[in-house]
Amino acid sequence: MTEPLLRVRGLRKVFEGDRPGSGLVAVNDLTFDLRQGESLAIVGESGSGKTTTARIIAGLESATAGEVQLDGRPIAGPRARRRRGDRDIQMVFQDPFGSLDPRQRIGSAIAELLSVHFRLSKARRLTRVAELLDEVGLDERLAAEYPRSLSGGQRQRVAIARALALEPRLLILDEAVAALDVSVQSQVLNLLIDLRERRGISYLFVSHDLAVVRQVSDRCLVMCTGELVEQGQTADVLDSPRESYTRQLLDAVPRPGWTPRRRSSADAF
Ligand SMILES: Nc1ncnc2c1ncn2[C@@H]1O[C@H](COP(=O)(O)OP(=O)(O)OP(=O)(O)O)[C@@H](O)[C@H]1O
Ligand SMILES: [Mg+2]
């Protein structure tokens, strides 16, 4: 057995409330592995703890208990991560506006990241910016543009380019295509599929969209109120779910022939 790239053991996150004992358990005793080169999806209804899990793994949030290791070494928590500037795990969010400075041109935003993390000559840095834009299917002339003049799909490609600039081993995508129109969404998904083949990068793919999950992931985890309820090969889980929660999640997805009356009252999501 080869060592997994990511090892998560007994992960727990409690968000403390105003009063003692009023905390909310967002993630409870979550254990899983992600193999080198694998694309693993996390699915589950809204509030099931997907983003919280993703943010802890990305080092953006601290865990209440449990362990997260990359290549057998504990990942850095939020404070250490800021200090050391770890590159191995990067995250792409649903709304790329949040991570793009509206006053900074696309090219200089990427160049700035490169200068923080790599020692490159200015010429080499500019070449690298052009290469990265090309890698995500954008014309290098977009480097001179500001985020507001880009389409949603282009902005998400820039967010992916910025993540790739740091040469991560694990890319976490949290609802990264959820805000895109269907046709743009499938282009960005194809890009992600290509990138994984080309770079051998691993994905942790958080999505509520099961059609998307089927397209991009090898395996999936199903979460319900912070707990792992089922995991397996994506096609197996989606085609023959073992748990009733997963079946309800699947039944809640409109399909051809779906009518509201066919939903049972047990489908609370
Ligand atoms: N910073 C926070 N402070 C307090 N509670 C939080 C915080 N972040 C998340 N939560 C709560 O933790 C639970 C899990 O939230 P999380 O965002 O991880 O769910 P999710 O599965 O990503 O949902 P969605 O599909 O809506 O994005 C929710 O009940 C949420 O309200
Ligand atoms: Mg979320």
Question: Any overview of this molecule?
Answer:
35% of the residues lie in helices and 23% in strands. It is of the alpha/beta class. It has a domain at 89-167. It has a 6-stranded mixed beta sheet with strand order 6-7-8-3-9-10, sandwiched between helices. The longest helix has 18 residues, at 182-199. It starts with 5 loop residues before the first strand and ends in an 18-residue tail after the last helix. Bound molecules: adenosine-5'-triphosphate (ATP) and magnesium ion. Magnesium ion binds next to α1. Magnesium ion (MG) is lined by residues 50-51.
Question: How is this fold's topology laid out?
Answer:
Layout: E1 6-15, E2 24-34, E3 39-43, H1 50-57, E4 65-70, E5 73-74, H2 78-84, E6 89-92, H3 106-117, H4 122-135, H5 152-165, E7 170-174, H6 182-199, E8 202-206, H7 210-216, E9 219-224, E10 227-233, H8 234-239, H9 244-251
Parallel strand pairs: 3-8, 3-9, 6-7, 7-8
Antiparallel strand pairs: 1-2, 1-4, 4-5, 9-10
Helix pairs in contact: 3-4, 3-5, 4-5
The site of magnesium ion (MG) has 2 residues, from helix 1.
Summarize the structure.
By secondary structure, the protein is α/β, with parallel strands linked by helices.
Any key phrases for this structure?
single chain, 4-stranded antiparallel beta sheet, 269 residues, 6-stranded mixed beta sheet, alpha/beta, binds adenosine-5'-triphosphate, binds magnesium ion
Give the strand tally. 10
CA(first)-CA(last) distance: 39 Å
Low-confidence stretches: 260-269
Instruction: Assign an overall shape.
Output: globular
User: How much β-strand is present in the residues?
Assistant: 15-25%
Q: Give a short account of the largest sheet.
A: 6 strands, mixed
Gyration radius over CA: 19 Å
Strand order of the largest sheet: 6-7-8-3-9-10
Helix-strand string? EEEHEEHEHHHEHEHEEHH
Structural class assignment: alpha/beta
Mean pLDDT value:
90
